[in-house]
Specification:
291 residues; alpha/beta; two-stranded antiparallel ribbon; 8 helices
């Protein structure tokens, strides 16, 4: 939701560069369907590595869904990824990506005039998004397909990397060193990987945001479900097929259907909860709330 007092701004869809010259980033604004009555702005934090490319269609679909629900949506690239400047191998800490996300949040507020925003983080993007409520005014935080412990991402990537190399007709070796490691086509700094592997979501109450949701397609038998609940998170189970650790699908776009719809309904429900004159519509008819 927006601040109580603000002026409606003309917001157009399109891409542009922002941030300081040395850390110039690319972002794409998808304007709300009815911009003259829009009071909602949403930032999407994408994943890193090869998953950035696998999920590009999914973030576009989500942005389209949210804009149809009358929210401005801003997608962006971290430095070293996509159309932003730099090489990702020069990223040495999660904090650098968090600064990029904060810069994107500031750009969203500048373009729309809406300071209180929704933030959605997909996969490793959820790790980045979780830090934003401490430095931005975040109304809703959505963690989409996150891992409770970020070392699980790195473990999955490494488990696929060696078989991928072995598929080549001629024997290949990636040139790793004490400073860098190549995994599935992305060259990471070891300091970044070490920091990522040490990240673990803490209790829900540690996040400085009133509305926090975890939207995932975890199997109901997964121990992670119990772990998320023990930490106080509300987990919404969707039926999208996830194959993050299957090498055969590494070059196939991830095409979720239920996830974007669930996120849109979750944000809409939160908005209606702030307006007592409107009917409150739950999600139970669209998805399963994990008990």
């Amino acid at each position: 939701m927006a601040n109580d007092e603000f002026s409606i701004r003309t917001v157009n869809s399109g891409g542009s560069f922002f941030n300081a010259a040395k850390r110039q980033q690319f972002g794409y604004m998808q304007a709300a369907r009815r911009p003259d009555s829009c009071t909602s702005a949403t930032l999407i934090c994408p994943p890193v590595g090869h998953e950035y490319f696998r999920t590009h269609w999914a973030t576009r679909r989500l942005a389209t869904t949210l804009s149809r629900n009358n929210s401005h949506v801003f997608r962006f690239d971290y430095c070293g990824i996509g159309d932003s400047v730099g090489d990702f191998c020069d990223v040495n800490s999660i904090e650098e990506l968090m600064h990029d996300a904060v810069a994107a949040a500031m750009e969203l507020a500048t373009l729309t005039g809406i300071d209180k925003i929704n933030v959605i983080g997909l996969r490793t993007g959820a790790t980045i998004a979780a830090a934003l409520p401490s430095c931005c005014d975040v109304e809703n935080l959505v963690l989409w397909e996150p891992q409770l412990s970020a070392d699980q991402y790195v473990e999955q990537w490494r488990s696929m990397h060696r078989p991928m190399i072995d598929l080549w007709m001629t024997k290949l070796e990636t040139e790793n060193s004490s400073l860098h490691e190549e995994i599935l086509g992305t060259r990471f700094s070891t300091s970044f990987l070490n920091e990522l592997e040490s990240f673990h979501f803490g209790p829900r109450d540690d996040l400085d945001c009133e509305n926090v949701s975890v939207i995932s397609s975890l199997s109901k038998s997964s121990s992670d479900i119990t772990d998320w609940k023990c930490l106080g998170y509300d987990l919404l189970d969707v039926g999208d097929q996830c194959d993050w650790n299957r090498l055969r699908n590494i070059e196939i776009a991830w095409l979720p259907i239920e996830g974007p719809a669930a996120i849109a309904k979750q944000l809409k429900r939160s908005s209606r909860a702030d307006s007592p004159t409107k009917d409150r519509i739950g999600l139970e008819s669209q998805m399963t709330v994990v008990q």
